[in-house]
C-alpha cells in the first residue's frame, strides 16, 4: 500500500470516527431533551425557578442586565420572538431554554449532516427539519404524561434550530474560506520562492 493510499485511508477513518462521535452527541442531546420534558410540571417549575435564581445571582456579580446589548436582546426576544405573550422571569427562562436547547441541537445536526454529505443545502435542511421533528414528537408525547403540549413551543424550537443551523453553516464557510486563503498564500509564497531560485 503506497503513501497516498495510507493517507486516504487515514482521512476516511478520521471522518467516520467524527461522524460516530457527532451521532452519539446528537442522540445523547435528544435523550436529554426527552428526559427533562418527562419531568412532572412541579419539578419543571422548580428547575425554572432555580435557573432564575442562578441568573439573578450571576447578575449581582457581573451586572450585565444594565448593558445596552442585553436590553436590546431581551426586547427582541420578548417582543419579536415571543410577541409579548410572556412577562414573568420564570416564563422567559422556560421559553429561552426552548430556543437555546434546540439551537444547540440544530447546530450539532447541521455539523453531523455536513460531515456526512459535504453539502451545505442538505446540512441546512436536516439541521432545521430533524430538530423540528424531535420537537413535534416531544410535544405530542407530553400530552400523554400530564403536561401541556404547545404549538408555540414547537415554533420556538424550530426557530432555535434554524438559528443554530445558520451559525453552524457560517462557521463552516468561514473555516473553508480561511483554509482557501491560507492555501492561496502558501501557493503564492512557493511560487515566489521558485522564481527567486530560478533567477
UniProtKB/TrEMBL annotation:
UniProt keyword annotations, A-Z: Membrane, Transmembrane, Transmembrane helix
Any Pfam family hit: VanZ
InterPro entries for this protein: VanZ-like
Domain VanZ-like stretches: 25-171
Key word Thylakoid present: no
Transmembrane segments: 16-36, 97-115, 122-138, 158-181
Domain of life the protein comes from: Bacteria
Name this protein carries in UniProt: VanZ-like domain-containing protein
Source species: Petrocella atlantisensis
